[in-house]
Amino acid sequence: QIKNLEEQFEARIVRDDKIEPKDWMPEKYRQTHIRQISQHAHSEIVGMLPEGNWITRAPSLRRKVALLAKVQDEGGHGLYLYSAAETLGISRDEMFEQLHSGKAKYSSIFNYPALTWADMGAIGWLVDGAAIINQVALCGTSYGPYARAMVRICKEESFHQRQGYEIMLKLSEGTQEQKDMAQDALNRFWWPSLMMFGPKDDESPHTAQSMKWKLKRKTNDDLRQQFVDQTVPQAELIGLTIPDPDLKWNEDKKGYDFGPIDWDEFWQVVKGHGPCNKERMKARVNAWEEGAWVRDAAMAYAEKQQERKEK
Ligand code: FAQ
Question: What ipTM did this prediction achieve?
Answer without folding.
Answer: 0.98
